[in-house]
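The protein record now logged underneath.
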Amino acid sequence: MKHYYRPVLYRAAGTPTTFVLPAPVTDVDVSQPYKMDTREVPLKNGSYNYGFRRQARLITVSGGVDILENCEYDDDSAYQLLINLDLFLNLNGTLGDRFEFFTIFDDETPKYVKYRSCVPKSFNYKIRDDRNDSMFTYNIVFEAEDPYVWTTAPGVT
């Protein structure tokens, strides 16, 4: 049985939303787990700060929107993809909304591979005029506060 690489973002807060990343996704870079600093509250004046630290992973996803033959592209759909991605990540709004990042998302089998509790850090994109490259390229950086790989369905912990 074959499983296909299909990067998807899923948010369960409010209305459950699934967002398939624009193709082709050219690179997914997952860092080694590291200690994520959290706020530490001192127990009393002059004492050391005590708190907890958790592990996290930094994940960078790069991709683009390909142009069609003869340097044509569907202007509305390409821009709409970038606008929808920006709205999904909601970097200017509340950063408290967590989402799941799937590298494999197959409802038919079902087969899922994901990182949970992801928080967006940055979203950048370029608009290019090059026949040999993607018309629009993007780069998303987010932190997976849960460093483990999960194989559960969307929204399931």
